[in-house]
Amino acid sequence: MTVDHEHQHRGEPHTGSLANRLNWLRAGVLGANDGIVSTAGIVVGVAAATADRGPIFTAGVAGLAAGAVSMALGEYVSVSTQRDTERTLLAKEERELLEQPQAEFDELVGLYEAKGLTHETACRVARELSDHDAFEAHADVELGIDPDELTNPWQAALSSAVSFTAGALLPLIAILAPPASWRIPVTFIAVIAALALTGAVGATLGGSRPWRPMLRVVIGGALAMIVTFAIGRLVGHTVA
Predict the structure, then answer these.
(1) pLDDT tens-digit profile of 152-167?
(2) Of 55, 130, 202, 232, which one is least surrounded by beta carbons within 10 A?
């Protein structure tokens, strides 16, 4: 029976860009999760101290803005450092290829042998890839870096800011929309449901079963709201 491999695998990505996209998606899910938990903690804490919408709205918006900027800045600095490291390693590899091509070729052969190829096959593969693009071959096997797809700090910063903001909007809306007596219960339920969803999505992207990740984020979010509610109620009564 003949299998049409081209038809069977049509549309399936076979490049490193798939891993990059999954990493960005996981980062987005984590950013949304942070936005949900941190903003929920702020607004629930303030709502425990006062029933006025003004202070709750102000605190929620301030927390959203501060969190989004902090997430974006943290991602920008982190990914910029990673990109600088990648560029340094690539420049070093390019220089070594110019200065000692035979030693680099032998190193490439050794790396393929370490992956399980025989010496003859490793030499043939290394030769064919080097003839095609020696720099790309060494960057891939030695460094695990695609020179054409370096990490982008601006993309990371924007992604983190947007995902955090999207997550933070949910508890902010949930705390402001209902009447005062329903604000905290509605927010609690909405946040728990949203955290369960982000936990399930994150687990799915990571290829693991969803129940434990869901349970972790739900328990963490519930504890955050309980603690901030207790602190808000205590501080509100003390000030009053």
Answers:
(1) 888 888 888 999 999 9
(2) 55
Exposed / middle / buried, residue 11 (Cβ in 10 Å: 0-12, 13-18, 19+): exposed
d(Cα 151, Cα 57) in Å, to the nearest integer?
Answer: 36
The span from the CA of 88 to the CA of 171, in Å, is 43
* Burial (CB count <10 Å: 0-12, 13-18, 19+), residue 14: exposed
Chain segment 169-218, per-residue pLDDT in tens: 999 999 999 998 899 999 999 999 999 988 888 778 777 788 888 888 89
Q: What are the residues whose beta carbons fall under 8 Å from the beta carbon of 211, sequence distance 6 or more?
A: none
End-to-end CA distance of the chain: 81
Instruction: Please answer whether residues 183 and 47 qualify as being in contact, where contact means their C-beta atoms are separated by less than 8 angstroms.
Output: yes
